[in-house]
Amino acid sequence: MKILLHICCAPCAITTVKTLRMENFDVMGFFYKNNIHPYMECVKRQEALQSYADRIDLTVIYQDGYDVEGFLQEVVFRESDRCQYCYHERLKTTALMAKRGKFDYFSTTLLYSKLQKHDIIQSMGEAIGQSVGVPFFYYDFRSGWKEGIETSKQLELYRQQYCGCIYSEKERYFK
Fold first, then answer.
1. Where are the beta strands (DSSP E) in the chain?
2. Of 30, 51, 144, 163, which residue is least crowded by CB atoms under 10 Å?
3. pLDDT for 49-67, tens place per residue?
4. What's the number of domains the chain is made of?
């Protein structure tokens, strides 16, 4: 069974890819980057993912371009709902790519994080999957949280300190 996995960063991919492979999935990654700000943060995350993907023989599709303006235009004045917009864009883009690539399923490494809203991601992923015609694979990857952190440190992978958007960066650093 082929699954296209939206990957937000290398550390979140560690136990997610491992688990899916143990479940006998043929995993391919997809790195969506319009939500990651500033640009050099996006570059660091992509480079870390490329390095990790090479180590574990994982093929990853990297999104073309960098539409930070489009992301911000959609979120401005709706900052309190930005995560829902962001989830939707990443899941929808992944599902459409999965359909084009004739994948059996799509999923996301967002399900690895203890900080993400799993209930929203699951219901949104299932609705998008139904509308696109590729099922969303829900799995609670949070049990691998500590292992993923430890492994990413051992491998000296770049570890970001916030979710990705400029708003989450402010929440992380502005006191």
1. 2-6, 26-31, 60-62, 105-108
2. 51
3. 999 999 999 999 999 999 9
4. 1
